[in-house]
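Letters spell out the chain; the tokens describe the backbone. To illustrate:

===
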Amino acid sequence: MQALKILVVDDDPVTRALLTKRLTKSDYDVDTAETGVVAVEKIGHQFYDVVLTDLMMPGGIDGIGVLEAVKGSHLKTEVILITAHGTISNAIVAMKKGATDYLQKPINFDELIMRLEKIQNWRHLLKNASDLRMAMEITEQTSGETIQNLEMTVADLQARLTAIRDVLERRELAPDERIAMALNG
């Protein structure tokens, strides 16, 4: 499986560095943004499988703003919000707007990696299902064409058999003539 491309968005350089180090060590392709504004700009130019964003950030665009920007341009991008100020109401708002998950600081990296693996496995299953659907459509199309060709061949053979029967039933012709006409067709 190809590594997920992850955008880490956090105004705290220590958190960004820690997340980058841990995720890179786990073989993820990691990019970073220090503000929501930079994140939205990057999202406009690049597809990310996952955006991991802090909820509370200064600069005009917070984690919910990043989430909205992601979902506005890349529905297939998963967004995980991270916050030190976790409340159920924040989680509900985030999930209603399309967040995949919600984690509290300090980040449990084992839990984060487990959630990313779950996303990766889900994407792999979706790709397999899509590939199977495409294979089924091709098979259906091919089988439809084959059936149509067989029906045309059967119709042609039935017409030939009818013509042969008609020739063989002509009593005004000698048997040898009927056989010769039937064979030459």
